[in-house]
Amino acid sequence: MALWGKSDDIYSPGTISVNYNTKVITGSGTSFTSASVGDVVSIGAGVTFGEAVISEVTSNTQISIASTQHLSGAAISGIQYKISQKPKYTLHDSNYDASEIYGVDTNEVSIASTTDYSVGHAGWVGITTYIDTHGNLRVKHEVLVAMSGISTGTAEYIDTSSSTYDEQVVAAGDSDDDVLFGDA
Questions:
Q1: Which is nearest to 90 in space by CA: 179, 8, 13, 149?
Q2: Which of 13, 21, 55, 173 might form a disulfide with 66, Cβ 3.0–4.6 angstroms?
């Protein structure tokens, strides 16, 4: 598998628990068989608990991870998660927090073109924001992997992971990026 894939969210419902010693993630109400070896599992709202690369998919309720290096070390039990094909090298990239890398498709590029989050190309994009000394929002972006064929996943779901906007139905695989990169 390449260092990245084309899906910004291969959504799997349910919650997970992580055993740091065995590097096994056990799910409740999950469907892990939609994931593949090499996909990235992001744990907690806003990736609070960190990320890991899947090394084995055992069943709908069990996967193994290659390393716990990029996990927080805190107990993880009954926590929400998402699985994506984001670039694996970003798990240790000091330039971006885990929640600042988005899969942006060509439609989202077009719609975002008139916003502060305008990006030059579809693909995997790193976004950093800050407020300058005059109180203005500043947005820096870098296209990490340019690609026009990035997809949005497999099924719609209700997004409840952010307190900054109301619960909403999110298009297949769009994860939380609709706040920055809308579909319509």
A1: 8
A2: 55
